[in-house]
């Protein structure tokens, strides 16, 4: 609506008062038109270094311990990860996105996003809780250099899930 008002003001300033009726007619036709295209959200993933876990089994054990502590504190026992920066594209991440974990310079496993919550770290500082699906899905190992924090990962850049019998073949260096 603000856009149409701005266009109307611009047109009224540029044309004579005799053609204001024509401008109003043009604006009503423009307003009644169906949108030319529908914008669809694109699924996004996130990639993060898994510090402290050397294997998928280590990550699973660590998350089981955190889930037990969360249950003991009276919260729903779901695996989560804390991060200082809250993702701005949460809707795209929740639209089928996953957190891909990098272990020993290889993307090895992923977990689907369940939600996001505001939380606090052990020292009391505010953070964002990335709530994850408990199921760890092994992916085709893909090399990844070390980086700080987390990054968005486009679906076409994400490694494929491993199927039974695929072995542990490593993808080519990008």
Plain-language structure description:
With about 170 residues, the chain is an alpha+beta fold. It is built from four helices and seven strands, in the order H-H-E-H-E-H-E-E-E-E-E. A hairpin with a 2-residue loop joins strand 3 and strand 4. Helix 1 runs antiparallel to helix 2.
Topology:
Layout lengths: L1 H13 L5 H13 L12 E5 L6 H17 L7 E4 L6 H5 L3 E6 L2 E15 L5 E7 L4 E7 L6 E4 L21
Helix pairs in contact: 1-2
Which parts are unreliable, with pLDDT below 50 for 5 consecutive residues or more?
A: 15-20
How would you sum up the global shape? Answer: globular
Number of helices: 4
Largest sheet: 7 strands, mixed
Rounded mean pLDDT is 82
How many β-strands, per DSSP? 7
Summarize the structure.
The chain has 174 residues and is an alpha+beta fold.
List keywords for this structure.
alpha+beta; 7 strands; 28% helix; 28% strand
């Amino acid at each position: 609506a603000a856009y149409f008002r701005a266009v109307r003001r611009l047109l009224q300033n540029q044309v004579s008062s005799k053609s204001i009726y024509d401008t109003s007619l043009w604006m009503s036709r423009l307003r009644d038109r169906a949108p030319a295209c529908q914008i669809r959200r694109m699924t996004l993933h996130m990639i993060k270094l898994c510090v402290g876990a050397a294997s998928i089994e280590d990550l699973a054990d660590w998350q089981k311990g955190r889930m037990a502590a969360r249950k003991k504190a009276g919260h729903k026992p779901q695996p989560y990860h804390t991060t200082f920066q809250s993702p701005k594209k949460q809707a795209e991440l929740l639209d089928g996105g996953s957190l891909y974990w990098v272990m020993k310079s290889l993307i090895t496993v992923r977990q689907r996003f369940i939600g996001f919550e505001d939380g606090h770290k052990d020292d009391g500082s505010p953070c964002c809780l990335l709530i994850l699906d408990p199921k760890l899905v092994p992916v085709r190992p893909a090399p990844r250099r070390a980086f700080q924090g987390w990054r968005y990962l486009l679906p076409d850049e994400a490694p494929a899930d491993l199927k039974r019998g695929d072995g542990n073949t490593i993808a080519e260096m990008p």
